[in-house]
Amino acid sequence: MRLIEADGKKLLERRGLPVPRGQLYRPDEPIAEVAGGGAVKAQLLAGGRGKSGLVRLANESELAAVATAIADRMRAMGLPEHILIEEKIAVEAECYLAWRIDDVRQAPVMLFSTEGGVEIEAHAGGLHEFVWDPLRSLHPHHLVGFLLGAGAASPRRRLALSSCGCTWRRAMPDPGVIPITSNQNATMATRDTATRRSDHDDRAINQLP
Q1: Which of 78, 132, 166, 197 is least buried, going by the fewest C-beta atoms within 10 A?
Q2: 104 in the same domain as 63
């Protein structure tokens, strides 16, 4: 799965994870005003956008000009000029979290670091792995000890628990959904108990220290 940032954030938002308000602009779409300015981000499947000048903060009066400059650079690179403009937010805590499928272990592995931002590979010593049995459901209480051992303070711990639950449910099959095949037509049946358990776990995240 390869997603630009805007598409990835839509998936997270659908799973209940708060994301900054923003608008994806396609080529030649007029840029709307954003009170207080915003973050202008080129949407492409590549890292290092900030260092390349393809992610910039802009004041309200500068938004259109900055977006045009970034679009011109993308056009020169032969890329479609898709640009995400988001509201500016105050960062309380930052961390890195990702799921990957480990071919050797035959299991999903969560990567976590208290060092967020760019060049996460440079902090390899602070990158922690959490291996999980794909046949088991994953709930917040399974992660508390791991996050404490990884050095996650309270704000980062709550952020990681919430993010982990949302990304896990997006990346892995929902244990509460059972595929049923009948006459070559696939339908889905949902177990109410599993749904209630998931809702309970989401509420419990906010009660953890």
Answers
A1: 78
A2: no
| Residue-range definition of the domain harbouring residue 12 | 5-87
Task: Using DSSP, state whether 151 is helix, strand or coil.
Answer: coil
**Is residue 125 located within the same domain as residue 185?**
yes
Q: Any residues with CB less than 8 A from the CB of 184 and at least 6 apart, and which?
A: none
Are residues 28 and 117 located together in one domain of the fold? no
* Spatial contact of 108 and 100, defined as CB atoms under 8 Å apart: yes
pTM of the model: 0.67
Task: Give mean pLDDT in consecutive 10-residue pieces for the chain, a chain of 209 residues.
Answer: 86 83 92 91 90 92 94 94 93 80 90 77 78 86 84 71 64 44 30 36 47
How far is residue 125's CA from residue 144's CA, in Å, rounded to a whole number? 20
